[in-house]
Design a protein that fits this description.
The chain is of the alpha/beta class and 236 residues long. It has seven helices and ten strands. The protein has a five-stranded mixed sheet with strand order 3-2-1-4-5, sandwiched between helices.
C-alpha cells in the first residue's frame, strides 16, 4: 500500500510517503505559513523521491486538528481533493495525538501542546507505558490549570508538540510537585508517527465520512466578529 501523510496544523509543513519498498519524509517552514503555495509541489516532489506518482497512492492521511484554522483547511482540502479525484480513502487523526505518537521511551504522562494564542493552548493528555500511548483526556483549548486533575496520578510528565518549550515552564509553575521535562531520547519522526496513527485508525474504523472536516476547539475570529455584529444588529 502506498500512503501519503500530511500535517499542516502548525507553521511546519510535514509530509511523508510510505511504499512497499521505502519511506520518504520532508518538513518545511514556509515564511508566513504559506502552505497553500508549496503543498502540491511538495507532494509531487516527495512522491517522485519515493519512486511513485500521485496516481499510485492508495491511502491519504492528514491531521484534522486542533491547530491553525487556515493550515488545517489547506491540508484537508488538498488531501480530500486528491483522494476524491482518485477514488481513494482518507483517514484523519488528532494533531495532538500524532505528536504524542512520536514518543517511544518515556513512562508517565505526556502532554501534547500547540500554542492557541490569546493566552491559551490546545492540549492533549496521554499515558505512555513501554512505548504505547493511550489517551486519558480529550483535546481541549485551555491552560495548565485545566490539566491538574488528569495529571494528579503521575510523577513524571513529558511535554511535547510544536510549542512544548513555551508551555513546559507554565505547567511547571502550576505543578511544582511534578518532574516535568521536554526531553525524550528515543522518538520516531513526525511522518512515521502520522502514518502509523492514520493507518491504525483506518484499519480499525475505516475511511472518514465524506463530510468530515477539520476539528476546531474554538470559534475563529471571523465567526466571533460575525456573531457580535449580528447581536448588535438584533439589539439595535
Amino acid at each position: 500500500m502506498n500512503i501519503l501523510a500530511v500535517d499542516t496544523a502548525s507553521s511546519t509543513l510535514t509530509l511523508a510517503v510510505r511504499t512497499a519498498t521505502g519511506f520518504e519524509e520532508l518538513s518545511k517552514q514556509p515564511q508566513g505559513m504559506k502552505h497553500s503555495e508549496i503543498i502540491m509541489p511538495s507532494i509531487t516532489e516527495l512522491c517522485s523521491d519515493a519512486g511513485i506518482k500521485i496516481q499510485d497512492l492508495d491511502l491519504f492521511i492528514c491531521t484534522k486538528g486542533p491547530g491553525s484554522f487556515t493550515g488545517l483547511r489547506i491540508g484537508m482540502a488538498a488531501v480530500k481533493g486528491l483522494a476524491f479525484g482518485l477514488g481513494k480513502p482518507v483517514a484523519s487523526v488528532s494533531t495532538l495525538e500524532y505528536h504524542a505518537k512520536c514518543i517511544l521511551d518515556f513512562d508517565g504522562a505526556v502532554v501534547s501542546v500547540i500554542d492557541a494564542r490569546k493566552n491559551k493552548f490546545y492540549l492533549g493528555v496521554f499515558e505512555c507505558r513501554e512505548g504505547i500511548c493511550s489517551r486519558i483526556k480529550e483535546d481541549i483549548d485551555g491552560n495548565a490549570e485545566d490539566l491538574i486533575q488528569a495529571l494528579a496520578p503521575y510523577e513524571r510528565i513529558l511535554v511535547t508538540g510544536p510549542d512544548k518549550n513555551i508551555f513546559a515552564p507554565v505547567l511547571a509553575a502550576c505543578c511544582q510537585d511534578k518532574e516535568i521535562t521536554t526531553q525524550c531520547y528515543e522518538t520516531v519522526s513526525p511522518g512515521t508517527a502520522l502514518i502509523e496513527l492514520g493507518l491504525e485508525k483506518f484499519e480499525r474504523q475505516g475511511a472518514d465520512d465524506i463530510g468530515q472536516g477539520p476539528v476546531y476547539l474554538r470559534k475563529s475570529d471571523a465567526e466571533i466578529a460575525l456573531e457580535e455584529k449580528e447581536k448588535g444588529e438584533k439589539n439595535g
